[in-house]
Design brief:
205 residues, alpha/beta, Rossmann fold, 6 helices, 5 strands
Length: 205
């Protein structure tokens, strides 16, 4: 066997191992669904850097789940009561904006625009908008870039929230954690796995 053949064999072996690992991750989600009956907002997609930021948001939209794609705010999980207040406050701001838009376009009221209403809403939405579907603490976290979210993953561990992490190694697998093997920068694999995850969550609901 020459060098090129050995390289192809290694690639095939890695691909097969990654696919088996991913299938186990799907089974992991199915088991969690049996315990919690996952609903809208129960799964949190976490991606807070470059490509991962948009992918976390897009995947969450596809399966009607929650996401965080800005820098993780410490205490989001460990002080969930405060997080719930932030989410409720954002709901109130959203209603205020919607009512204000209605007033501006109404023929019977003053059409002056209070831009501060929109500024307050935009700031809150940037930070907490991805959690608007969350009616309670997440039942599962899917983290696309774990190296940049160690604080979030520590909080999940403290709260005993199961996690699925995209990783280039298979370590850190336990009853509360599972890793999806994917090479750094292999964006096609990220897209494929996230699409299948979204479809799997839709099928469970």
């Amino acid at each position: 066997m020459n060098t090129h053949q050995r390289h192809l064999t290694k690639m095939d072996s890695t691909k097969i191992h990654s696919e088996r690992n991913f299938q186990r991750a799907l089974q992991f989600i199915t088991l969690i669904n049996k315990d919690y009956s996952l609903k809208s907002g129960d799964v949190l997609f976490l991606g807070t850097k470059d490509f991962y930021r948009d992918l976390a948001k897009l995947t969450a939209f596809k399966c009607n789940q929650s996401f965080v794609n800005q820098t993780w705010k410490p205490g989001t999980l460990t002080n969930w009561n405060e997080t719930e207040k932030r989410i409720k406050d954002l709901h109130s701001k959203k209603i205020l904006v919607e009512n204000h838009i209605s007033d501006v376009f109404s023929e019977t009221t003053n059409r002056s625009i209070d831009y501060k209403i929109y500024e307050d809403y935009a700031r809150a939405d940037t930070r907490w908008g991805g959690l608007l579907r969350s009616k309670k603490e997440p039942r599962l976290i899917v983290c696309l870039n774990p190296e940049s979210n160690k604080v979030a993953l520590r909080e999940a561990q403290m709260r005993l929230i199961p996690t699925i992490r995209f990783s280039n190694n298979a370590q850190d697998v336990s009853s509360y954690n599972h890793s999806i093997l994917v090479k750094d920068g292999d964006f096609n694999s990220y897209l494929y796995y996230c699409n299948v995850l979204a479809q799997h969550l839709r099928d469970l609901s």
